[in-house]
Each structure stands twice: as structure tokens, then as C-alpha cells.
Specification:
The chain has 613 residues and is of the alpha/beta class. The protein is built from 21 helices and 22 strands. The protein has a seven-stranded mixed β-sheet, sandwiched between helices. A six-stranded mixed β-sheet has the order 3-4-2-5-6-7, sandwiched between helices. Strand 12, helix 13 and strand 13 form a beta-alpha-beta unit. It is globular and about 90 Å long. The two termini are 49 Å apart.
């Protein structure tokens, strides 16, 4: 049989196995290699929700999906072209994500009777039981082959078996025509200083996996995805949490203020704190606090002292921070609170993604307590979202909530590294001149923006009082009813005036029509793909995405007024739709929701839009 290389526009590969099988590393390496090769890509790491699930069980399966393309890729893909299943549990839980013509690669050494029973199979033929026997099945003794490959390496059996993911990666590189050079360079960089002895064994097992796949008759064809043709510039693959950290560092540079992050580790936000901790050379100070309340309170103190102050968390931690958030609102101090959302309520499913914290972000504080809300829409957009959130916080003297999601924080995509000269300066309203009477009034406001001055402690003549009790413009404690009403109204108006400083809402597609599809946050790529797919098929539909939740862009009413119906798609039970309905009661809002701890599929969005039309 003659071997053929088939050119494809895009492919989706899903690596799945037990938590100790190295699937996250395997998927990350395949993604990074493809990014360097020039492919557009998007990834979706899917971690088990249990810390240490029983070995070989479905609850312990760890997955990593990567979508690579020769044209722009905006989602990790719905169904996969190749499923790598390192054990029966991985096959059991992931077979449903295979395309009709998919290839399934399994380690036959793991498919013994005990492994099949632990995974929940009732028969000895898992492929027939799952109805995937018609796919291209590559059943290979990967563990045995890895042991044979490294029998002369001097490594012990346990260490050798940990290399089976590299053997599998070598096979995947052959199937999709990926060069091994990048992987060799990665091994050199990672292990040359501390563990140089493992470099050559890993190179060998990679090469042997590649060659083994090349000699398998069941792999008749291989596939090539050409490099994309992106905008010129320097790119790197970046995760959302890393991009968020870098966006905050950029805001620190542009404002001239040191960055302080006080946080408590929580899945899936911990990566931001870890990334910031690396960059002490850029003036970043990080504190791993003893709890969520301490994290935000140290950040508020740092803000009072003149820092760009940040705290990072997820839904449960945001609940704990709510009282201190009210303090930051009352004191009118700049603060960025990053909420990388996960499935709840309570501890819920810590490693699964959702958009279910929106109501908490909007309303989850006592009293009249308005806070601007910014939402990131892709892993690379987390950089701009973090920068803009920090800019708003410092220039408008307010805490800002930045909403990310587990899907964005852990996912990755190529990022065009920007030039900082293209980003605006950040100009905090520092108090520099005393009034003519020589008395500093800490809550006197700019008449245009209603923003108060930021007086850093230690400035002679600018001594003042801040705290959780209501005050008047002079900074004097006040329980006067009229003053309280005035200050409440001014704090709300200050937030609403931010609409004059953010971009207007853009419409992808016709400016008028029967249906406008609306999204926010990490649903962006999936909705965009669904809308474009429908338009290519001749369906008239438009799309608008909200990066700014509170306040909404100032032209929102005008945009909504041009459409008969508005379909709001979100990963919750309809929180944004309900919020918009309250703001614009004359518009006809419809909902399409998913609360499964998983992102939308493009196919299910297409069907939902068709139903509304």
C-alpha cells in the first residue's frame, strides 16, 4: 500500500489518560511545537475534579485537546480526529468526542480485565461496547514498547514507564507530520542543568515512537496542516492565566507604579499568582496569604500605599472577599480582583469551567456597592483585559472585577507579542496640589469623571481618613441622610461614566436584522465560529460580544434596537440575559444556556441559532 500525505485545513487531537500518564505535558508539547511550526491553534486542558481519584477510574481521567489549523482557529474544536487513550477509563469517557472517521490510539497493555472493569466496561470488547469499532483503531503495546526502547538506558522500570507518553507523542508526530526538532530542543532546555541523564532516553523513546508509527500498516496515510498566515510579528503560545499576569505587569509599567498581588491559592486562578511571583525583577511583589480575606485586605493596604494592587481568586474565594470589596468601594481605592470562574456552587467541580459568577460580581455585596466589570474573551485577550481593568481601576479610583474562566485561564493560543509603545499611558489622579484654603478634601471629585484624588500616605498636608464608614467630601465621618444619598449616587454615577472611556459595542455581520446573537467572556470563539458557519450557509445572523459588563458600552441600546430578537448564549442559567433584560426591557431577549462544566460546542450553538430563526 502506497503511503500518502493528505493536506488538511485543521485537525483536533485529544490526549487522555490517568492523572499520572503525562497527558497535560504531551498535549502542551504538541501545541507548542505546532505554534512554533506556524499553525494557528487553541487548546483545552480538561483536568479531573478530584485531587487523587482511584487509579484507572473515569473520575481520574485527565485530558488535553488541541485544535491546530492553517487558518485562524478560535475554538479547541468540537470532536476530535485523533483520540489517544492511555487506559480503558480514558477511552470510556472520551470516545463520545470522536468524529465518525476518527483514529483511536490506545495502549493495549492497559486494557487487561482489571483495567476494563475499573473503567466500567461490562464486556471484553470496549470498542464494540462503545460503538466505535468502525473507527481506525490503532491498538499498540505502548508500555511494552517503551520498556523495550529504554531497556539499556539504566533507568528503573518506574521511570521508564513514565516515558510512555513520549512514545505516544512520537507516534502522534508521525501521524500529523510534525518535526521532532522542537521536542529535542525542549528536552535539552528542561533537563540540561539538573537531569541531563534523561535527555537521550527521552529523545530515543520519541524517535522510536515516531518510527514505530511509520512501520504500522494500519496507519496508511499521514496528515499535514500547513502553517497559517497570521499578521506579521513575533508570536508565542500563551495561556490565559499567564496573559493575565503579563497584562497586569504591563499596566504596572505604564502607570509607573509597583505591582502588589496578595492572593490565596485556588483552582483555577493560582497560575496568575505563580506567574507574577517569577517577575520580581519587574517590580512585582507577591504574597501568598493565609486565606482569601487576608489576600484582598493586604491588596487594599497596598493600594492605599500607592501600588497597583491585585488579588486573584475563583468563585468560592470571591464570596469570601465580598466584605472587603465593599471596603474598597467605600474607600474608593483602585484594586483589580481577578475571578477565574469554575463550576459551583460551593466547591462544585473545581477544574471545570463555567460563567456562573456573574450575578455575584454584579450584586454580591451589601449596600449599594457598584463595581466595574470587565470580561476576557480568549486566552490571549486576557492580556488586554487585565491591562484595561487595571487602567480603569487606577484612573477612576475604584475596584474592578476582571472575569476570566477556567477554560480561558488553562487554555492557550498563539499571541502576537505587542509593542508597549502601542499601549496608552495610565495616569492615576494623584493629589499633588492643595486647595487654596490648604485643606485636602479626600472625596472631592473631578466634575467630569466624579473621580477623587489619590493621596499617598506621607505627603505633608494630605493627611486623611479612609475606611468603611460613610464620610462626606471633606473625609469627615457622617451619618447625615442627605450626605449618604449623595455619596451613594456619586459612586454609582462614577462607575457609569466609565462608559465614556471604553470602546463602543461592535456588530459582526449586518447592523440590522431578525436576530442578534450575544455573548460575553470565553464563549466568544465558539459563538463567532457558529455565526460564521451559518452565514457561509446563507443564513442572515449577526453577533455582538461584550468585553465590558458594567457599565455596558454606551451604544448598546442603539445596537439592540436594530434587531427583532436577541439570543444570549452563556455558560450559566441566564444571568447576563436577565441583567440585560433589566437594562433594556423593550428588547426581546432569548436564552441559550449550558451548565455542564464544559464549554459550548459550535454544533449546539448552530442548532440553537437555527431554532430561533
Amino acid at each position: 500500500m502506497q503511503h500518502k500525505v493528505i493536506d488538511l485545513n485543521d485537525v483536533v487531537i485529544r490526549f487522555a489518560g490517568d492523572s499520572g500518564d503525562g497527558m497535560q505535558l504531551t498535549g502542551s508539547l504538541f501545541a507548542d511545537m505546532s505554534a512554533i511550526y506556524g499553525n494557528s491553534l487553541a487548546t483545552f486542558p480538561d483536568y479531573p475534579a478530584e485531587i487523587r481519584a482511584p487509579h484507572g477510574t473515569v473520575s481520574g481521567v485527565s485530558g488535553f485537546q488541541v485544535h491546530i489549523g492553517s487558518e485562524h482557529v478560535s475554538t479547541p474544536g468540537d470532536l476530535c480526529d485523533l483520540l489517544v487513550a492511555m487506559n480503558p477509563a480514558a477511552l470510556y469517557s472520551n470516545a463520545k468526542w470522536c468524529k465518525r472517521n476518527a483514529m483511536i490510539l490506545v495502549d493495549s497493555d492497559a486494557f487487561d480485565e482489571a483495567g476494563l472493569r475499573r473503567a466500567g466496561f461490562k464486556t471484553d470488547n470496549p470498542f464494540v461496547e462503545l460503538g466505535v469499532e468502525d473507527r481506525t483503531l490503532v491498538v499498540a503495546p505502548i508500555t511494552t514498547l517503551t520498556e523495550e526502547s529504554l531497556k539499556d538506558s539504566g533507568m528503573d522500570t518506574k521511570a521508564i514507564r513514565k516515558c510512555k507518553n513520549m512514545f505516544t507523542l512520537g507516534m502522534a508526530c508521525y501521524i500529523y507530520d510534525r518535526p521532532l526538532d522542537y521536542l529535542y530542543e525542549y528536552l535539552e532546555r528542561k533537563f540540561s542543568k539538573k537531569h541531563p541523564e534523561v535527555i537521550e532516553p527521552n529523545k530515543k523513546v520519541l524517535r522510536d515512537g515516531f518510527n514505530y508509527a511509520a512501520n504500522l500498516q494500519m496507519i496508511a496515510d499521514t496528515y499535514h496542516v500547513a502553517p497559517a498566515k497570521p499578521k506579521k510579528g513575533k508570536y508565542r503560545n500563551i495561556s490565559g492565566n499567564q496573559a493575565t499576569a503579563w497584562g497586569l505587569l504591563a499596566a504596572s509599567e505604564k502607570s509607573g507604579l509597583p505591582l502588589f498581588c496578595g492572593s490565596y491559592p485556588i483552582t483555577p486562578a493560582t497560575g496568575i499568582l505563580e506567574e507574577l511571583a517569577i517577575h520580581k525583577s519587574l517590580g512585582a511583589k507577591t504574597l501568598q496569604a493565609e486565606d482569601e480575606i487576608a489576600g484582598i485586605c493586604t491588596a487594599i493596604g497596598a493600594s492605599y500605599a500607592g501600588n497597583l494592587a491585585v488579588t486573584t481568586t475563583s468563585g468560592p474565594g470571591l464570596s469570601l472577599k465580598s466584605e472587603a470589596l465593599g471596603l474598597a468601594v467605600m474607600a474608593e481605592l483602585p484594586l483589580v480582583v481577578v475571578d477565574v470562574q469554575r463550576a459551583g456552587p460551593s466547591t462544585g467541580m473545581p477544574t471545570k469551567t463555567e460563567q456562573t459568577d456573574l450575578d455575584q460580581a454584579l450584586y454580591g455585596r451589601n449596600g449599594e456597592c457598584p463595581i466595574p466589570i470587565v470580561a476576557a474573551h480568549s486566552p490571549s485577550n486576557c492580556f488586554d483585559a487585565a491591562f484595561n481593568a487595571a487602567k480603569i481601576a487606577m484612573e477612576h479610583m475604584t475596584p474592578v472585577l476582571l472575569l476570566s474562566e477556567g477554560f480561558l485561564g488553562n487554555g492557550s493560543e498563539p499571541w502576537l507579542i505587542p509593542s508597549m509603545k502601542d499601549y496608552p499611558a495610565i495616569n492615576p489622579p494623584f493629589a499633588t496640589n492643595l486647595p487654596e484654603d490648604g485643606k485636602f478634601k479626600p472625596f472631592a471629585r473631578d466634575p467630569e469623571t466624579l473621580v477623587r484624588k489619590w493621596a499617598i500616605p506621607g505627603q505633608k498636608g494630605f493627611e486623611h481618613r479612609v475606611g468603611g464608614l460613610e464620610k462626606n467630601h471633606d473625609g469627615v465621618l457622617s451619618t447625615d441622610p442627605a450626605n449618604h444619598a449623595l455619596m451613594v449616587a456619586e459612586r454609582e454615577a462614577k462607575v457609569q461614566k466609565i462608559a465614556d472611556f471604553i470602546p463602543t459595542l461592535e456588530v459582526d455581520g449586518p447592523a440590522k436584522g431578525k436576530l442578534l446573537v450575544v455573548g460575553w467572556g470565553g464563549t466568544y470563539g465558539h459563538i463567532l465560529s457558529a455565526v460564521h458557519e451559518l452565514r457561509e450557509a446563507g443564513t442572515d445572523v449577526s453577533f455582538a460580544h461584550f468585553d465590558y459588563i458594567c457599565p455596558v458600552p454606551r451604544n448598546t441600546a442603539e445596537v439592540f434596537g436594530n434587531f427583532e430578537k436577541i439570543l444570549v448564549c452563556e455558560l450559566n442559567s441566564g444571568q447576563f440575559a436577565n441583567y440585560l433584560r433589566g437594562l433594556y426591557p423593550d428588547s426581546d431577549f432569548r436564552k441559550f444556556n449550558k451548565v455542564q462544566g464544559q464549554p459550548f460546542l459550535v454544533s449546539e450553538l448552530v442548532e440553537a441559532i437555527k431554532e430561533e430563526l
